[in-house]
Write a structure and sequence with these properties.
By secondary structure, the protein is an alpha/beta fold. It is built from ten helices and nine strands.
Length: 258
Amino acid sequence: MNNQVVKYEKLDAVSIIRMDRPEAMNSLNAQLRCELRAAIETAGSDASVRAIVLTGTGRCFCAGADLKTKTTDLDVEQTLQTEYRPIFEAIAEMRQPVICAINGSAAGIGLSLALACDLLIMAQDAFMLSPFTNISLVPDGGLSWYLVHQLGYRRAFQLSIESERISAERCVQLGLANRTVSAETLMEETLKWAIRLAERAPLSMAATKKTMRFSATNDWAHTFDIEASEQKTLRASADHAAGVAAFLEKRNTKFEGR
């Protein structure tokens, strides 16, 4: 991929997608949105990719939308629906786990992008911020849904209307992030995590992601049905047979994704 503001790298079964507008704190303009969507869709459609890392170059993961970009009021809804939404949907619908590595900060719709990912690791000096009330706007990019579902209404509302800066440590305490590491080791630890995930059963991870994403907006009974259907499919897979044999023989399994 010959990108200018998104760098795409592949290390064996791990794809690394890096937003690369450090001079603008990786704020999302039209070009970055377009290239980011293309990179995510490329990784998602690559059968050899088993885990994806999303991060940003420089001192910031993503500062949100580029406020210097000239748009009319009528452009905003269309941009959200046709340029941003496909990015978030691609992350949710792809079979691979997506790990977000936050360096510096994730703010505005950049926070939405981070919370759209399946797993989240933060540098110890990083933070999250929903700054919309500072500029008289509403949280967007699905941020209202992410925060309410992960925090509950009252805490999500407070953090949003007060535009509170949420430290990495508190993000872990609140369940917004999985873990924190030093800024110096952020990418090293993220890649180690991604490599470990890439060695796990890909069909199982894909089914688990699908089922748990489904459960976020559906009831227990329908989630039970999805689990049962996925289990039937997985039981017939070669990976399941290989995993059971390895378990009984007390050895590691090399999963083939079939």
